[in-house]
Amino acid sequence: MKEQHNLTIYTEDRFDLINKISLVFTRRNIKIESLNISLCEIDDIYKYTILITETPDAVRNIALQIEKIIEVFKCTYHTNQDIVWTQVVLFKIPTNQIITNEKLNDILRKYNAKHLSVASTYTIFEFTVQEIQSINMIKELEKFELVEFVESSRIAIAKSGNRFMKD
Fold it and tell me: Which of 163, 156, 150 is nearest to 83 (CA)?
């Protein structure tokens, strides 16, 4: 049965890596739902976090293929139950809606939104979410002239105590 899996890849900074990783998924006709690339706790090592929906066997095979063919240090995979993850959403709403609409303020409090920029015409808010929360919140905000929003890729850390160690 298909379910969401998070692949974590540890590698050096290589400009060709994103293309090679993308090809692994393209050849198998698997959609990358989220991709995040960041520095990790080890100097000069990067951490790729990739979200896909696939069967456990397919994910295991992909992780093995990435380690074997692409020359990365390590590729691990986890289900959502095995990780702690989040995303950030930024959204812009007309300032007059915030001033005049108490329901909107209730929604902003409900999702613990934090204002980042206030101007006379628009206010920009940030909040940290899980995927379903984001969808629900955006639907609620559309009623209040939501002008724009952007959602970050997923960031995640495995709950297990294992740490990647560079050889």
Answer: 156
